Amino acid sequence: MADAKLIDGKAFAGGLRQRVGAGVADLIAKGGPKPGLATVLVGADPASQVYVRSKGKLAVELGMASFDHQLPENTTEAELLAVVAQLNADPTVNGILVQLPLPRHIDTAKVLIAIDPAKDVDGFHPVNVGRLGSIAPGAPLDFPVPCTPLGVSMLLQDALGSLSGLNAVIVGRSNLVGRPVAQLLLRADCTVTITHSRTRDLPAVCRQADILVVAIGKTEFVKGGWIKPGAAVVDVGINRIPTPEGKSRLVGDVAFAEAQKVAGYVTPVPGGVGPMTVACLMYNTLQATRRVAGLPFVAV
Ligand SMILES: Nc1nc2c(c(=O)[nH]1)N[C@@H](CN(C=O)c1ccc(C(=O)N[C@@H](CCC(=O)O)C(=O)O)cc1)CN2
């Protein structure tokens, strides 16, 4: 059997970024507002710093305004909630992103629920979670949807075309990835199974999957023998492991070399789902701005 086709998330994200940039230019040219994205980072986690920096930089590259709020690790929950309230009230801010994870002394749920749902470009507010949870098959995604899951569904639709009737198995039940991916694939008429640490005979369940989405946070957890020949495998994992040279490299939650020999399609790590996260954030920010301007929903 030929090796799996690579799903090139980096290339797809590049195209999406271009389309969002064109959408921003068109909005402004027609007298609409300049989209504004506020990022909020609490603490100094090096990976979070990189992600937040790249979000602000890309927003500016695409013609948006970027407002960066860097708060010290010892910021109190009340102080963070005050920043969110100020951003909710600011008409130049169309999208608010609080980078996760937050320090342990802050209640994440309390912060996410404080964000105006119309500015919730991460799609984590319970109102937006509920919208996704109750969406009809094929209905437009005219509200913010979590960025990584949105990226996963865009990549799958681009690679496979119609997903209707396919068996999708999701490994991992997080609010950030597993559950919203399940809702998006249900909307696309897949038959969806969510698996987790207590699932019995996980390899056998995975072998039923035409689409296997893995977001479990464990290095090379899914082996080649768990994959149905020809399946589409989407690896959401980003694990940094040490190299013998004393450096580090990124690997996913799927044993990539093994998967490549069995699957029909596979996403690499890096360069698969990761780049879609930031591109989809820009997409969500453009859409949030169009909604505030009273413009109809158009997928770009
Ligand atoms: N508020 C949020 N917090 C977090 C989110 C999120 O969507 N909203 N997701 C992740 C982190 N994240 C963005 O915030 C993110 C993760 C990975 C990538 C990415 O491009 N990864 C590259 C590799 C990058 C590297 O070399 O380290 C890839 O996979 O190719 C972008 C954004 C948690 N927090």
Describe what is shown at a glance.
Helix content is 40%, strand content 16%.
What layout of secondary structure does this protein have?
Layout: E1 5-6, H1 9-29, E2 36-42, H2 46-61, E3 65-71, H3 77-89, E4 95-98, H4 108-114, H5 126-133, H6 147-160, E5 167-171, H7 178-187, E6 191-195, H8 202-206, E7 211-214, E8 232-235, E9 239-242, E10 248-251, H9 256-262, E11 265-266, H10 274-292
Parallel strand pairs: 1-11, 2-3, 2-4, 5-6, 5-7, 7-8, 8-11
Antiparallel strand pairs: 9-10
Helix pairs in contact: 1-10, 2-10, 6-7, 6-10
Residues 51, 97-100, 122, 147-148, 238, 250, 269-271, 274-275, 277-278 line the site of ligand LMY7XDAE.
List SSEs in N-to-C order. Answer: EHEHEHEHHHEHEHEEEEHEH
Enumerate the spans where pLDDT stays under 50 for 5 or more consecutive residues: none
Percent helix range: 40-55%
Please describe the biggest sheet, giving its number of strands, its sense, and whether it closes into a barrel: 6 strands, parallel
- Which second-level CATH architecture of the largest domain applies? 3-Layer(aba) Sandwich
CATH level-4 homologous superfamily of the largest domain: NAD(P)-binding Rossmann-like Domain
Bound molecule kinds, no repeats: ligand LMY7XDAE
CA radius of gyration: 19 Å
Main-sheet strand order equals: 1-11-8-7-5-6
> How does the helix and strand content classify structurally?
alpha/beta
- What is the overall number of helices? 10
State the domain count.
Answer: 2
The level 1 CATH classification of the largest domain is Alpha Beta
Please count the beta strands (DSSP E, at least 2 residues each): 11
CATH topology descriptor of the largest domain: Rossmann fold
Instruction: Report strand %.
Output: 15-25%
